[in-house]
Design brief:
This protein is mostly helical. 65% of the residues lie in helices and 0% in strands.
Length: 117
Amino acid sequence: MKGTPNPKVIVADAQQVLAVCKANADFKLKDFTVESVEKDCSDLDKLVLQIAGKEQEITPLRNQRDEIVVRLKDFATRGRSGIKGYFGGNSTQYEQAGGTRSSERKKPVRKAKAEGK
C-alpha cells in the first residue's frame, strides 16, 4: 500500500467487520472490543473534521506559497537565459547559475542506417 490509507475506507471496513462481530457475540479478538472499535471510529471522525478545518486555514498560505514559487521559478529560468545570452553558453557564470556548459553537453551521434530487406 502506498501513502497513507484513506480514513473513510478504513472506517467503512472497520464498520463492516464490527457489524459481523455484533451479530456473532461469541467471536472475540484479543486486543479489540466492540466498544473500543466504536470509540476509535468516533475519534477518527472527530480528527478528520479537525483536519478538514485546518486544511481550510492553510489553503490561503499554500496559494501564497505557490504564487511565490512560480515567480521564483520564472526568475531562475529567465535569469539563467539572460546569463547565457550575456556571458555565453560555455561560460563559467552560466555553469554557476545552474546551466550546462555547451562544451559539457553530449555530442549528437548519428544512428546507423538500417539494412533494407
